[in-house]
Design a protein that fits this description.
By secondary structure, the protein is an alpha+beta fold. It has two domains: about 260 residues, SGNH hydrolase (Rossmann fold, 3-Layer(aba) Sandwich), CATH 3.40.50; about 130 residues, Galactose-binding domain-like (Jelly Rolls, Sandwich), CATH 2.60.120.260. About 35% of the residues lie in helices and about 20% in strands. It is built from 15 helices and 19 strands. The protein has a six-stranded mixed sheet, sandwiched between helices. The longest helix has about 30 residues. The protein starts with a helix and ends with a strand.
Amino acid sequence: MISLRSARTSLPTLLPSTRTVQAFKDRAKSLPPSVYLAQLLVLLLALFLLFKDRPPLPPSAKSSEPYNWGGFDEVCVGEFPSRVCEEYGPHNVKLSRSYEGTGTRFREVFRRAVQENLPVRVAVLGGSVSGGHGIGNLGSDKIWVVKTFNAINEAYPHPDNSLRNAAVGAVGSEYFGACWENRIKKEEVDIIFVEHGINDLFAHESAVTMEDLLRGLLDLPQRPAVLVVRTLGLEADMIAVGGDEHLPVASYYDVPTISLRPVLLPLLFKEPAREREYFVGGDGWLDRRHIGEKGHQALGDLVGSYVVSQLVVAQRQIQDLRSSGHEDWRQLFGKQRKGAHDWPGIEDLGETPKLRLFSKYEPDRVVVPMRTQCLTMEEGDFVSNHLLEKVRNNDGWSERDHSLWAETIGSTFEVELDVTGGKVEIYFVRNGESNWKLGAIQAWMDGDEENKTLFDGYRDGGQMGEFGTVAEGLSPGKHVLHVELSEGSSTPHGGTEFRIISIIAL
């Protein structure tokens, strides 16, 4: 029996000692040649097995040849990504890629664009950071959105390339998951950036609403490429923010995620005084929620690096396609052989998963494609479902300050909704200031008056928009929402008026 102690002490010994070698030679002299050769072969085989998988030792310090340790070179593919690697270091570029995924959708978009000479149409759904808070407007060349688009435009110049910055301040994935169709022209978008990491709270609900958004975007018939962008905000009670709830959702849907935090935060840990270089601020104040010009430059470079690298890969794939003699890229990159042991092949990459991440595993279940209906009082270039036009049996409700407004107790209205995911919500104004006299409503679905839900417009604080769920688990199809202005508000100001911004069916 070998003791644990003797086994441990023998592990680090890689080569036999001089005494052991001499003993082996002396013993070998007394053995027949055939036995000696057999033992020698066993020894050589053991040494081969011991060292065959070990990496080569690095060269000595005196060597003039550089040693390539590898591990990060694949992120520096193409002219622009190479420049980004030189600026930030390839290790930081790698760190920024919280989830790289397969890049399938991006390469599809770029292969199609290059082969058919099509423009690349980019859209951004984000919050105030993407809107340029503190440094410029939606189209400012100082913000990451424009810097990323410029990198794409430089790598793939086309006269009709376009950018639609649909960012809205102070809202997150809860709003966009329901109402994104009112912000972009869904038929005319190829790449969509989603930035809600610091506006969303660190809560499970943020993961659910991000899934609503990603699933809706990925289900578009033109199969756009979607990428989650994470900026850095340090004003919350902890470093973790809603974006940390988004990551498992993004990986489930194979949506790449690029984050500024793994790159910038270690620098600020070492040199806190440099916060003023990367956040919006002025004399005596610093806004750690909104990155400044230098932060936008870094975020734009890191996101652009990933996207352009996918373009470079797609261009190389097209070269392989042409050299193979095929006319259609699908012949080369569509159906391909499955992996070993019958694991899935690559032919289904880029498809939306059949079941939602936050649903029960039911492989035989028939799933209706994700659709949202957002009836809104907001104004916008792409608003096609105006709430007031859809209201019926209206008694006491009218338009005021881009909201559906009433102040007389008993005021009612109905609206018919097309439900696909079983959920109906109301997006309404809440405020606790004394000059706001906000009351409450009750809402219910179809004829189910026994299950009314109360929504209170009063809150202890300033104005905000808030979502409230009327019903869940509804069957797919047409349903009627009933709303009535009622008593029951907690306001100390004696108000009764109520303001509805949007009604959403998921």
